[in-house]
Amino acid sequence: MGLRDLFRRPSAPAGVTPSVPTHVAAEPGGPRSEAGPPPARLRSFPLKLAVMQRLMYDEGAVLPAFTMPASLHPGAPVEDWFRGYQLPAALVAEVAMLRFSRTNEVLRQLDPRWGADDARFDIEELTDRDLDQLPALAEVSDPEAMLSAAARDALAKRGIRIV
Q1: SS3 32
Q2: Res. 35 pLDDT band, cuts 50 70 90
């Protein structure tokens, strides 16, 4: 049984928390339902993960939060699921604060073996296209220096405070 199969079932197996709201497609890149809101189109995967952290784990605006089943191993299927997850653009537009931290729950769920010295989810650049989808963003927390100088400059140009 693959990751997608877990989220297609009306009731997930014991110990598995399905993470796909009814208005979001379960398949990566899959079509959204007719009644669903339009999805955000964040190109930066690390930025998308930070937004997912805020909406799914910190605020509970997108529920239920993804929980890695013990029967699954981290890897491409899990990363594909996170990449394909469609965050509602309206919720993304309301995000006022992001935290880039190697201790974010979303990163532990994506890969429980991920370590604090692993830089694969650091933010090398932030494009105008991505930042335009976050008009309410006013503050970014970066305690472990996951943001590159270029990313910090992009935020500063928009008046976004970095703490």
Answers
A1: coil
A2: low
Q: Which residues, listed in sequence order, are joined to residue 97 by a DSSP beta bridge?
A: 139
Sheet of 97-99, strands arranged across: 97-99, 139-141, 161-162
Dist. CA 128–CA 85, nearest whole Å:
21
Structure tokens belonging to residue 56:
């799914």
Query: Which residue in the block uniquely carries the two structure tokens 């877990």?
Result: 6
Contact between 52 and 60 (Cβ < 8 Å): no
Torsion over CA: 117, 139, 107, 78 (sign): negative
Distances (CA, A) of 34 to 37, 38, 47, 120: 8, 10, 27, 35
Q: Which residue has the higher pLDDT, 48 or 36?
A: 48
Tokens for 72, please give them: 């699954």
Question: Alpha-carbon distance 137 to 135, whole Å?
Answer: 6
